[in-house]
Amino acid sequence: MASINKVIIIGNLGRDPEVRYTPSGAAVCNVSVATTRNWKDKTSGDKVEETEWHRVVFYDRLAEIAGEYLKKGRSVYVEGRLKTRKWQDKDGKDTYTTEIVAENMQLLGGREGGGGGYGGGRDSGGDEGFSREPAENSRPAARQAPAPRPAPAPSKSSTGFDDMDDDIPF
Q1: What's the gap between Cα 132 and its chain centre?
Q2: Dist. CA 81–CA 26, nearest whole Å
Q3: What's the CA gap between 69 and 114, in Å, rounded?
């Protein structure tokens, strides 16, 4: 049986991204994204808010893009998978960290929204999409031209008989 490990979050960056490079030259970018859930307490009727912090890691070209465009406070859509890493702290104790390994990212809001502007290179302040897919998809998503409209149907006469066959079966 197949299994699925997929995470989608929309939230705000809690701090500016940290970009590092591995000894082989691959970029790695870490961010913290906050998601907030609101509800009304059934017993007291008070509004309750709960903020959850998510560790997100970007790799390769997506990491470079995240480091360039993301800023503290900026709204972002992240799609990826959960990964739990095991490491040892300074005392030699095993420690576990669960993070989201980003595979797609969408910058949300306009240029003025979130944590400030970015050099997206577009005239309008729309959303920007990025992916960890192969090279042709790792650049900003191009806006697609609208599909051509189908040609209008030929106009019918008021009687509606113009489009009928000459071979009438009676």
Answers
A1: 11
A2: 19
A3: 11
Distance CA 14, CA 74 (A): 8
Neighbour count for residue 31 (Cβ, 10 Å): 27
The tokens describing 143, both together, are 């806006």
79: nearest Cα among 14, 132, 140: 132
Distance CA 98, CA 84 (A): 4
| Residues 91-133 pLDDT 10s | 999 999 999 999 999 999 765 544 433 333 333 344 556 665 5
pLDDT tens, position by position, 39-97: 999 999 899 999 999 999 999 999 999 999 999 999 999 999 999 999 899 999 999 99
CA distance 117 to 164: 61
Q: 22 — phi, psi (to 5°)? A: -75, 165
